[in-house]
Amino acid sequence: MAHFAKLGTGNTVVKVEVVHNDVATTEQEGIDFLNNLYGTRDIWKKTSYNTRLGAHILGGTPFRKNYAGVGSHYDDVRDAFIAPCSYNSWVLNEETCAYESPVAYPNDDESYEWNESTQSWDLRS
Asked: In CA terms, which of 14, 32, 82, 97 is 20 to 30 Å from 66?
């Protein structure tokens, strides 16, 4: 199975579709299939369900840094899918194409949430 992200305005992912390998084995075949299916000339990019933070979770070859989710952005310079950033203080990690907090998440058994106003991790109650 191959997954394809439909890009909308500003290269934002608006839909993700699955195409069976019996239908398409290359990215272009998948794109052609989806455009023929919908009768459109949309922009589609193949995405890997098993790619997260620049690594393939099953040990394979990572593809476009992250799996594309609706609302993600496709960056054509990095050839990567990047999830939206929730906080102004977080910065993009160029290796993983994921946003990271300016302070590391505490390494203990507790649960925390980010506090943007103090730029720190608060213990969840």
From this structure: 32
63 by DSSP, 3-state: which?
coil
Label residue 125 by pLDDT band (50, 70, 90). confident
pTM here is 0.91
Taking the C-alpha atoms of residue 9 and residue 76, their distance in angstroms, rounded to an integer, is: 14
49 and 23 in a common domain: yes
Domain residues for the domain of 51 are: 1-83
Q: Are residues 8 and 22 in the same domain?
A: yes
Dist CA 22 CA 29 (whole Å): 11
Where residue 96 falls (left for φ over 0; alpha for ψ -120 to 50; beta otherwise) is alpha
The amino acid sitting at 10 is G
